[in-house]
Amino acid sequence: xxxxxxxxxxxxxxxxxxxxxxxxxxxxxxxxxxxxxxxxxxxxxxxxxxxxxxxxxxxxxxxxxxxxxxxxxxxxxxxxxxxxxxxxxxxxxxxxxxxxxxxxxxxxxxxxxxxxxxxxxxxxxxxxxxxxxxxxxxxxxxxxxxxxxxxxxxxxxxxxxxxxxxxxxxxxxxxxxxxxxxxxxxxxxxxxxxxxxxxxxxxxxxxxxxxxxxxxxxxxxxxxxxxxxxxxxxxxxxxxxxxxxxxxxxxxxxxxxxxxxxxxxxxxxxxxxxxxxxxxxxxxxxxxxxxxxxxxxxxxxxxxxxxxxxxxxxxxxxxxxxxxxxxxxxxxxxxxx
Length: 337
Description:
Elements: H1 8-19, H2 29-46, H3 54-61, H4 79-94, H5 99-109, H6 118-128, H7 144-147, H8 150-155, H9 160-171, H10 178-199, H11 206-217, H12 222-229, H13 239-249, H14 256-268, H15 273-282, H16 287-302, H17 309-314, H18 322-336
Helix pairs in contact: 1-11, 2-4, 2-15, 2-16, 2-18, 4-5, 4-18, 9-10, 10-11, 10-14, 10-16, 11-12, 12-14, 13-15, 14-15, 14-16, 15-16
């Protein structure tokens, strides 16, 4: 267990010490595939209730824990996972994060039906028209750079600086606002930390976890760091209390500052992968994205084996679906493990 120390500063220092001694198993097929398919599971579970409030979800579905149809068939992924798959393909084909190559993968995989926002649709049209990849981004504070980035946290589990640099580089293709960049960095670092704690069976401690991430991204955007530090005390395993606390603190909307913190909170309040993702989606708001981010953290922590079989069976498995993601993860691990 992480020692319970007396001050926040000491707790963060303790986490820094743990992170500097990375176990080799933090980067493994189980954790990479767990993060990737965990993202897809959260995305697909949240897809049919995107934009709903927590109260509306509870009234209509109670505890939403099964894949349902919505604007897409049950088990379908949205733009969140489609862009994550582009990152996986880049890691598999280039051996690292190559922004120019990734921008081309974003464009090649782009399917408007997945639910891309109007700003990203315009960005894709500019890419298709020949605008250089590093000139198409806009000054957006949205959560789009964070929703797709989780797999980088496992890929760079042994190198915090490289993890930060890659998270920011992929974000800058579409988002240049400091808040959007900080959200991407926070999510990548959270998945990295989850993978490392999971590899040694360390139980995440909410205050230390959040304080560690907030400290790392504060120089990028102070507001997001403050919103992370606003995390309410969370009692692990109590979904109802965590849902009330998180929805009472965060808007759970499309902004990085109001989506990344509750996604972290849902992971930290849960005692299993399934509970984390169900809680995240039950918060309402940008449900597919918050679910995807929590799913990446929870999958990296508990590993692929913890993902419910019923969810995996329901996941979309077209040519660029579940099996393709597993193939990419295997290739990446074969090349780098």
